[in-house]
Each structure stands twice: as structure tokens, then as C-alpha cells.
Amino acid sequence: MKYSNAYNVLPDDIVKIIQEYVNGEYLYIPRREEEQKKWGENSGSRSTLKRRNEEIYLKYISGVAIFDLAKEYYLSDKSIRRIIGQQRKNVIKTNTE
Predict the structure, then answer these.
(1) CB-CB neighbours of 83 under 10 Å
(2) What NCBIfam families does this protein's entry cite (predicted)?
């Protein structure tokens, strides 16, 4: 995120109105709600974790033990169980649609 001088992007009268509220302070103006991106969309983290979780589930249903998955992915048993549960719900949801 970069800063822009308000005088370069807004009409002078709007800048003067804003100065009545936040004179000389930094002001963050968020994106419109419909244009906001979800966590991890820019960096690719979201898709990386999605692929990892799908991989964990496929290994689990092919017989790999939770303990072994936890060791392989450096996660706790509880995290592996949570991922398996979420993936199971996704599969059921996909099959019912």
C-alpha cells in the first residue's frame, strides 16, 4: 500500500472538508466491500493451504495414520483431525450439490 497526496487525487473542496476532521494525520480509506480480497489471495497462501489440506485428506483416506500426517506436516494431531473434518464436510457438500 502506498500513500497518495490527497491534493493529487481529490478535489480541493473535499480535501478541505476532510481536513476539518483529520488535519495532517494519516487516513486509511478501505476498499469497497465488494472489492476486498480474502486473506491469502494476493500472496497465494490461501491456495497453498487448500492444496495441502486436500493432500492431507487424500493421504488419510488412503490409510496414512493421523500421527504420521502430523509428523510429516509439522502439525498437531488436533490440527490434522480438524483438517480431515473440514475436508470431509467439503466432500459431502460437493457430492450433494
Answers:
(1) 22
(2) CD3324_fam
